[in-house]
């Protein structure tokens, strides 16, 4: 999750350079230069936290309509990274040096994080879109966990040039079925495409109110070890209830897990946290799978400074967690939303966080 310092982001890759071994002379030289030379770097520092079951600016952060809700207690904090610098902007070299020397900061050349042609406005738009999507998917994940029905629509927003669907599928087509089987969401589409292991599939779409079938041979993507149709899809949902989020100027996809937990807590009788102060991060998918994020060292530090005692960390980020956990903070490793709910409930009832899986 990202917060403009500048930018506040929930998930940014954060390789870290460490200057603590730099000689005193080199450090003095950097300090001297820092007063006169602007730096084309991006710095990342711990950002603010937001309690998803609490209030923000005198408004409930998660407000649910058209469903019965229950009292909550404690905290389920989403965590952020405060980012300075980026496209079309510079950050003072003294600030770069400060972040570089900080135990909780990181510094990267701007060109490694952003394409040369990207603008700050485009970055902001992308972060905002990722946040909106993460909120919708978090609601879907929470309802899936609670056994509530909803409908997901997959609309084509773009067709990859040279891909297997070019000349067949068009923008605004709605994907309905694969090989005659109805789809109930993005995960079922992925499963249907991968099941034939590269063989051609029949894709049924709705276009201009009529259904059309196309035979398409997916291509293999080594990076993801999966087969692809070469389509860009926009996901939309029809939910039986409305969730309003009272949070602005925060972008990125990595608050999904904490949003889903907040929704589940408000829709479930009993106080899930038991009054304890939890924090965490992670993307979420409609089936409850928790994905990795960036900036986890900064997020753990921000969580600790905000008073959290337990931090929920995606299993994918464990290699970045080890050796960087602030004193007094217990880290629980989670792979699914179910893992996270069970950890919060049991710790809220008095279980020792050390009895749950952690990063090691």
Automatic annotation (TrEMBL):
SUPFAM superfamilies: PDZ domain-like (SSF50156), Ribosomal protein S5 domain 2-like (SSF54211)
The Lon proteolytic domain, residue ranges: 246-347
InterPro entries reported in the protein's UniProt record: Lon_proteolytic, Lon_Prtase, PDZ, PDZ_sf, Ribosomal_Su5_D2-typ_SF, Ribsml_uS5_D2-typ_fold_subgr
Positions of the catalytic residues: 254, 299
Pfam families to which the protein is assigned, alphabetical: Lon_C, PDZ_2
EC number: 3.4.21.53
Gene3D superfamilies hit by this protein: 2.30.42.10, 3.30.230.10
Reaction(s) this enzyme catalyzes, per UniProt: Hydrolysis of proteins in presence of ATP
UniProt entry keywords in alphabetical sequence: Hydrolase, Protease, Serine protease
Family stated for the protein in its record: Belongs to the peptidase S16 family.
Protein name stated in the entry: endopeptidase La
Species lineage: Bacteria, Bacillati, Actinomycetota, Actinomycetes, Micrococcales
